[in-house]
Specification:
The structure is a homodimer. Chain A is an alpha/beta fold. The first copy, chain A, has 11 helices and 15 strands. In chain A, strands 3, 4, 5, 6, 7, 14 and 15 form a 7-stranded mixed sheet that branches. The first copy, chain A, has a 6-stranded parallel sheet with strand order 10-9-8-11-12-13, with helices on both faces. Chain A has a two-stranded antiparallel sheet with strand order 1-2. The model of chain A has no long low-confidence stretch (mean pLDDT about 95).
């Protein structure tokens, strides 16, 4: 029996295109002692994927190589096992790849049967840890402060905003459509939301953050970055989670001048979730409590069909999703 | 009796020029209860002065106003006193101004008679606190790491490099002449120094910091900033103490792209010494010990004569000093 996978055929030049992936058919592996086989059911599509396709050797992990199955994480079921820690029938989350079946690995985590794959991918795995660690450990939020988050209708951004609200902050979201902004304010309880494709962004931000910006959770990059940066208060913190807008560029756009960093004692700090694996349990616990209390909610944008992965990724980078982008197969 | 002072007559457009200051003659004040009069003997000239002449209201302190005596700090002697905490004959350091005589203020600090004015201004006051707080509290240096410091032959930079050496780091200094570089390596014990006015700076830095850069103590800004930034290791820290090269510009040069901040989990943090006043005693103690052990030394570039203040400031911004710039009058 064979299964489908997508291999990287070439690196993108600028934007992601359909033709950088080859769909292939691979033979099912025969398990050796200690191995187990996972049938993936839900795969996450993430902005970080663009960074894994950059040919640079000094990032936090090496780029996906030409001819390799594309990297990803997802949820699946153990369908065959020679590993007693991961018996057949258990459900797992972990690094999987763009592949219907994957060999399991010891870093995978067994999922509580009462939690849905959507909840795991939206809240209780890398996405939740990214939101939680960035906001709480780097942002160090204090009640009454003002937070601005970009990519606010995305999986991490929507969680950051809700978590900040739950912690007593004023929250302003930046998103790419009026519909997304309406969702942020009406459904998620953000204090204000700004469509970055509209006009007079400086004035809109001043109105939405009348006491200035204390924490800027950066998910997107692009021209809005400097507008938010310019309205930071003294001792402001910037959490650089992602700068999607700049990943496509051979020469990424420059950042704001460091004069304000100096004169306003600002801190601009980047991170990736795996820097904070040691607080995974804390993140799960805090986010789980807020979820149970109804203080945070999640939404998935689900596309069905393994064959739709490349198109899904392109949709993600066009910002066509609201909430977590999941492909179900 | 009258005394001399310099008042600000207009804000600089770009570089500092002689004509932005007016020398004036002011009448000696009659002291009220609790006041004391200080005859200033040594005044410090500092890069931060350029930032006090910027017309912006969101910096860490308001700009000097037109018609006000120019702000500064210095050392002087109490010559008349109606304040028992500051008796006549005591020596003090504090915020003074470009003025031969100043009314004392409660924030002034009485100086141990055994310590010279030069040592106070170079090591035991704002300059020392700036070097110490930035390096130790923001940089969090670890033995064996590599530090690069710009403005390395200046008062803060030369102290940062020596302190880092004393703490077991590899230290690379960036300065503006071969002579200064020679002083850093031969006299202060830096591992390497680079004249930023020479060629092939990337290659020179790679050779001087073969294991990459862990801490970048930024005193100058300018094109060298990005060259150092690009060679930062994962989890690198950047201490933004000053960006002199950009203070003169109406539109300051942009900073490096945030992509590396994201992918390498970098931290870029600004500060001013007064954010760290609570560790003043710690700084004095640590720096004093290293000074006593001969692990750090200081050098002052002293100009004599009150009337030479404006020219001295221009010399400072041309980088014509090595070590702490002091005007003695």
């Amino acid at each position: 029996m064979n299964y489908r996978a997508f291999k990287l055929s070439k690196y993108p030049q600028g934007k992601i295109t359909m033709d950088i992936f080859d769909q292939v058919s691979l033979p099912m592996p025969a398990l050796k002692e200690g191995e187990f086989l996972v049938k993936q059911t839900h795969m996450s599509l993430d902005p970080a994927m663009r960074t894994w396709l950059q040919e640079r050797d000094d990032s936090y992990m090496p780029p996906v190589q030409i001819g390799e199955v594309m990297r990803s994480y997802g949820v699946g079921e153990v369908v065959e096992s020679l590993n007693p820690r991961f018996p057949a029938g258990s459900r797992v989350v972990g690094v999987t790849g763009w592949s219907e079946y994957v060999l399991g690995n010891e870093e995978m985590t067994i999922i509580d049967p009462s939690v849905s794959a959507e909840a795991v991918l939206s809240i209780f795995y890398i996405t939740g840890l990214t939101a939680y660690a960035g906001l709480m450990k780097i942002g160090m939020p204090k009640k009454g402060e003002t937070l601005v988050v970009t990519g606010a209708a995305g999986s991490v951004g929507s969680l950051v905003g809700q978590l900040a609200k739950a912690e007593g902050l004023r929250v302003v979201g930046i998103a790419g459509s009026d519909e997304k902004c309406k969702w942020l304010v009406d459904e998620l309880g953000f204090d204000a939301a700004i469509n970055y494709k509209s006009d007079n962004l400086e004035a809109q931000l001043s109105a939405a953050a009348p006491n200035g910006v204390d924490i800027f959770y950066e998910n997107t990059g692009g021209p809005i970055q400097e507008i938010i940066f310019n309205q930071l208060n003294r001792f402001g913190r910037v959490i650089v989670c992602g700068v999607i807008a700049d990943y496509d560029s051979a020469i990424p756009a420059k950042g704001p001048s460091w004069v304000d960093i100096n004169l306003k004692s600002l801190r601009v700090q980047g991170f990736i979730a795996t820097d904070y694996l040691e607080i995974s349990d804390e993140a799960v616990s805090v986010l789980g409590n807020y979820l149970a209390q109804g203080k945070i909610q999640y939404k998935t944008h689900t596309v069905e069909g393994f064959e739709n992965l490349p198109e899904g990724l392109m949709m993600l980078f066009k910002g066509e999703n609201t909430g977590k982008f999941v492909v179900k197969f």
